[in-house]
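Title: Prediction job returns without error message
Component: structure pipeline
Severity: low
Priority: P3
Assignee: unassigned

Description:
Job completed but the reporter wants confirmation the result is attached to the right record. Sequence as submitted:
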Amino acid sequence: VAKCRLRRFSYSAPHSHTFTMLTFFINLRRFGKRARLASLRVALSRGFTLIELMVAVAVFVFVVSSASGLFVSSLRAQRRSIAYQQLLDQTSYVVEYMSRAIRMARKDLTGSCLSTAGAKYNYETNIARDRLRFLNYQNKCQEFFLEAGRMREQISANSSAAFGVPQDLSSADL
């Protein structure tokens, strides 16, 4: 009984389908039925079926889309976190600035900045309570107010209530 062996070639390039079929036909002539079946199994087991390729592509697409979805959601969360941090920073600055100015407010003994209702007091508010007016430490009339959802400030050139152009205390980007 002769042993069936598949012929091995020393070939540096990767085995291609054509090379495998060539080996199959060489073995078909040289050896018997057993070698032919073994060579046929080797020839058929080297490639992938269309179903296997489709499953592999579907799994790959699912993994890549899941990873990209996680990446996009993490970017959105980071942007939202940065926006909240900027809002917190600006709010902290405005509150600190206003509290320092109000702490240093003086009494308006002359009534030039505050109305008669606020005379001899440190500050006054309007009826809607969206404005706060006081005489600051430099004897200038200063007013904080809320306008269109933004905190603003006006400072007069002297102790009178003749204000200049209002300045924003908060950014319009928020």
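Comment from assignee: result matches the submitted record. Residues 83 and 174 are 8 Å apart (CA to CA).
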